[in-house]
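Researcher: Next entry in the queue.
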Amino acid sequence: MEYIELLLKEYADRYETEDFLPADPSWFMHQVNGRNNQETLAFVASCLSYGNRKQFFPKIQYILDSSGGDVYNWVLSGLFANYIQDDSSKCYYRLYTMHTMYTFLSAFQDMLKDYGSIGAYVQETATTGLQAVKAICDYFSERNIEVIIPKNTASACKRVCMFLRWMVRDGSPVDLGLWSSFIDKRTLIMPLDTHVLQESVKLGLLSSKTASMSAAIKLTHRLAEIFPDDPLKGDFALFGYGVNH
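Model: Structure for this entry, 245 residues:
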């Protein structure tokens, strides 16, 4: 196990660099200015980050282009309705119709109106990573937005956990650390999907067969043994392992 630990530490250092950004959806939040714009675009980008990157990158880029980089006001003012119509027959991306995206952005608009920002909402409702995942799921579930945001934390909630990594982890050339003052990065939950699950099983970090929240928490605890002050540094480590094996 000592060899695995050394290997993962090496991969974490090698892959958590600015060179990681261009091929990752986290790149988009670095293309806008101001905390509100970064939070808002990061959240939308995380929600669209599934499937083939060559397919979903243009969908995130469309949001960036349509908003002219002022994504926060684009959502808050309802300008998004000029670009994403409430149409259930037209596809936006894979399972998301234009109607799905419209209702999601409308709910997000309500959050920004009521709380000022998604960061302010999370700060008011959560103090740990898991609480933050639950708070975000609860908000959108109450508004019947279940296709884009999981309705509860039974699933691994991979994209929500990834968004929280972006917002909370500080001292990183990739993650922004905007919420590091009110969420401790040691409480974050590992973003877990089938691919990460398979890599973790190969390494002996997990024995689970499904990407559930309980499996994500178990993996986080194992990674905390290697990276005690920053378990999600292990996200870059497992990425590096996947690239090289």
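Model: Residues 38 and 187 are 22 Å apart (CA to CA).
Researcher: Noted, moving on.
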